[in-house]
Every structure is written in C-alpha cells, then in structure tokens.
Amino acid sequence: MAVEELSFTVEKGQVYGFLGPNGAGKSTTMNIMTGYIAASSGSVRINGFDILTEPQKAKKCIGYLPEIPPLYTDMTVFEYLMFVAELKKVAKKERTAHVEEIIAKTQLEDVSGRLIRNLSKGYKQRTGVAQALIGYPEVLILDEPMVGLDPKQILEMRDLIRELSGEHTILLSSHILSEVSAVCDHIMILAGGKLAASGSPEELQSLMQGQTRLEVVVLGEKEQAEEILQDIGQVEAWEIEPAQETGSIRIRLEVADNADIRKELSVALAGAGMPILSMNRLERSLEDIFLELTEDAGQEDEAPDADGDDEEDGDAGEDVDAGEGVETEEDSDANSDIDAEDAGEEDADDGSDL
C-alpha cells in the first residue's frame, strides 16, 4: 500500500512541503491529487471540483511539474510553451503575450529560442515550472523540483518558488530537508505512506522537543557535579564526561516539563566552587526530528500483525485544502494506473481541501 489514511489541509497562498525518504508515498500522493492515478477509495476536490467526476474543471486549477519534466526536446523553449498554452486552451489572441510573460517570470528570456535538448539541467527545470504556470492555475504541484540541480541552481529555484508563492498555493515534495525547510511555510513528513507529522518548522521542533536539554561545561569533579544535580528536582537524567579544557567536565542533562533551571543551576555550581565555562540549551534540529519519525514509521511497517503475518490490506485517505478548496480523501494502491477521467466506477468518499 503506497498511501494509507493520509489526511491534511492546505491553506491558500502557502507553500507546503511533502518531506520523506524515497518510497514514502510523496509522488503517489501527488499523482492522485493531479488525477494521474486513481485512489482505491476517497476523493480529491480542487476548488470544489472532484478530480474523478469533473476532471477538466479540476485539472484547470492545477499546474503540475512531475519529477521528470514533460519536455519535448526537439522544440525551442518558446515553441514548447506555445504548444502547452494551446493544449491548456489559452485564447489564441492572448497566447503569445501570456507565454512571453511566463518566460520573463521564470527568467528564460536568454534561452527562449534554444532547443530544449541543449539546455542545462537548471534551465530544463525552469522550463518545466514554466509549463506548469501556463494558464496561471491556483495550485502548483512540484514533484522534486530541485533534484539534480547544482547549489547555484538550487538557490535560483528557491527564489523562484518564493516569488511564485505570492500568487499561487504551492505543494512541493523532496527527500532533502534543507530544500523543504528553506522555502516552505508548512512541512508534512511522510513515512511508510502515512502522515508522521505536520506543522511549521518551528511547530515541529516544539512538538518533538519534549524535554529541555542543557549542555554545561564547568571546572570541577564529576562526583561534585552529581551531588548538585541530585538536589535539583527537575533534572531527570544527565551524562558527564571530560571536556577539552584541563580540569573541566561537560554535563549534558535533561529537564522535565521544559523547566528553565539555568539560574538555579548556575547558583548551585557557583556556590560549590565550580566556575561555569559555558552553558547552552540543546534543541533537536529538523534533521533529528525527520530521522526519528521516519525510523519509527519504518519499524512499525516491519512489525508483524497478531497472527504473525505482515499486514497487506490498508486504506489510504487524504485530505487537502488549498484555500478556495481542493478536497482530497483517498486510498491508493502502488500499482494503480487508472486515469482520472476513467475512474467513474471507483468508490470515493468526500474528504479534504487542497
């Protein structure tokens, strides 16, 4: 089962990031939302239009960049975007001006007359984003938009996504945390086809923080420090090891209920004749949170059921809300290959907003 019981809400004008390891279900979820594959149950609504029963109206609201951009390499950039504009039924009298505006927005002016096959990876990705923008859809869905780019191209793509977020709701996927955290207002961590966590970068850090952790370097002896820590009630655990400076020790401790004991600890250490060389509050990085959540999900997937057999059956539900309303609640089989237009016989329950 590629996606199981996945439900979320997307606010209009925000940049949302699907984060997860390879095989977590990111691309499958995007393919379901865009109508490329059908879910075994559930529904997707884009601005109130069901992706299965009203596919043309729903897809008109979506601009989609797959992981491999759908480029015709024997065309020039301008020819290709004019072709896409025709497919998306942009009015003929407006087509040229529309394409030129998008070329300027995606900074493709210098290569608009070149064959796509001769472009660098970065320009090919920009061309892929440009085709997604044709028709100015309300929602942009970008699957791994920065994959394979060099550091300079990644920075340029980040800037482009930030610029586009002022006019579009954007969903992008990646398995690289730094890409998602750099541009996204909201992060959804997928693991094993399920939503492991959801929130802003700050909310995720707060959610997973649990206990306050401090690292203190002092001059003194281990036994002396342990006596002091035992007298401070909020300290739940500690580790003490030699520090780099001669005669110093490093204390790492965990404090219950996010209590701030820095003043109490400082007074106690100073009173015992143990000068403090440094004191830092340790926080889990997003990398730590990502690894912990995905590892936990992997262990759950590997655990057998009560009969000793691996569980094979599952439902995949998904809710997405993009302001004006894209609703999605879906179940997906990994091998599903039913086009949205032909999925009328699929069972679908109303669910979410994208």
Describe it for me?
The protein is built from 11 helices and 14 strands. The protein has a 6-stranded mixed beta sheet with strand order 5-6-7-2-8-9, with helices on both faces. The chain has a 4-stranded antiparallel beta sheet with strand order 1-14-3-4. Strands 11-12-10-13 form a 4-stranded antiparallel beta sheet, covered by helices on one side. Helix 3 packs across helix 4. Helix content is 33%, strand content 23%. The chain folds into 3 domains: 147 residues, Rossmann fold (3-Layer(aba) Sandwich), CATH 3.40.50.300; 75 residues, no CATH class; 74 residues, ACT domain (Alpha-Beta Plaits, 2-Layer Sandwich), CATH 3.30.70.260. By secondary structure, the protein is an alpha/beta fold. It is elongated.
Low-confidence stretches: 302-326, 330-354
Order of helices and strands: EEHEEHEHHHEHEHEEHEHEEHEHE
Named at the architecture level, the CATH assignment of the largest domain is 3-Layer(aba) Sandwich
Helix content: 25-40%
How would you describe this structure in keywords?
single chain, 354 residues, six-stranded mixed beta sheet, four-stranded antiparallel beta sheet, 3 domains, 33% helix, disordered C terminus, Rossmann fold, Alpha-Beta Plaits, alpha/beta
Characterize this entry briefly.
With 354 residues, the protein is of the alpha/beta class. The chain has helices spanning 26-34, 55-59, 77-87, 92-105, 121-133, 151-164, 177-183, 201-209, 222-230, 262-271, 286-302; strands at 3-6, 15-19, 41-46, 49-50, 62-65, 139-143, 169-174, 186-191, 194-199, 212-219, 235-242, 248-255, 276-282, 328-332.
